[in-house]
From TrEMBL:
Domain Glycosyltransferase 2-like: 4-164
Record SUPFAM superfamilies: Nucleotide-diphospho-sugar transferases
The name this protein goes by in its record: Glycosyltransferase family 2 protein
Residues annotated as signal peptide: none
Coiled coil ranges: none
């Protein structure tokens, strides 16, 4: 059983090499697919120095957004299970085994890593981000009839063949509600597992903002009510 770890990258020169070391150290058979979304801070130069045996690196010729980077990466996966990994250090690759276990056990088709239902550690940060996340998750749940606790989580693991049944349209962070709406319509077996979370603040490079929250709301309505 091989994993395809898909990593969208944009302006992460301070974390990308450490993140790659952490992913590489996971003792599971895997391929690593990096998509540089036209970084301008030196990240692209770092990626060009990588030994090609470490990862497959794909380059966008202009900045398109996380969803677009994932769409590019999904077109190159060859593994049995796909895992989405952010290029910062908020999510711990050592938790891959926990994420994929329900799939390996034959119980799940998709597994979300929840930052809120967990016995693991998590960094305490922004109250209003948490409120916004819970509101968006609740609204998504109402329309999908799921009972997720963390729809917006980065960590999503799923069987590769699911990609043959959905097409990602959103270019930015709207990927999360779009993906959730589309897998809900497929009547897949969806599980959650608690994960640790070491969130960043804006001075450390966090990129998502209130405009992305508005976009997520639009996507929840669009992909649940008008498709």
């Amino acid at each position: 059983m091989m994993l395809s770890v898909v990593i969208p990258v944009y302006n992460e020169k301070n974390t990308i090499l450490e993140l790659l070391n952490l992913v590489s150290s996971v003792t599971l058979e895997k391929e690593i697919i990096l998509i540089d979304d036209y970084s301008t801070d030196g990240t692209r130069d770092i990626l060009r120095t990588l030994d090609n045996g470490i990862a497959k690196v794909l380059y966008h010729d202009f900045n398109k957004g996380k969803g677009a980077a994932l769409r590019t990466g999904f077109n190159h996966v060859t593994g049995d299970i796909v895992i989405i990994q952010d290029a910062d250090l908020e999510y711990d690759p050592q938790q891959y085994s926990k994420l994929i276990q329900p799939i390996l056990d034959g119980k799940a088709d998709v597994v979300y890593g929840s930052r809120f239902v967990t016995g693991e550690y998590r960094r305490v940060l922004f109250f209003w981000h948490m409120v916004g996340n819970k509101f968006l998750t609740m609204l998504s749940n109402i329309l999908t009839n799921l009972n997720l606790t963390d729809m917006e989580t980065c960590y999503k693991a799923f069987r590769r063949e699911i990609l043959g049944n959905i097409y990602i349209e959103e270019n930015r962070f709207g990927f999360e509600p779009e993906f959730t709406a589309k897998i809900a319509r497929l009547n897949l077996r969806i599980y959650e597992t608690g994960i640790s979370y070491s969130g960043r603040n804006y001075s450390e490079g966090k990129k998502i903002g209130w405009k992305d929250g508005i976009s997520a709301l639009r996507c929840i309505l669009k992909y649940n009510l008008f498709r």
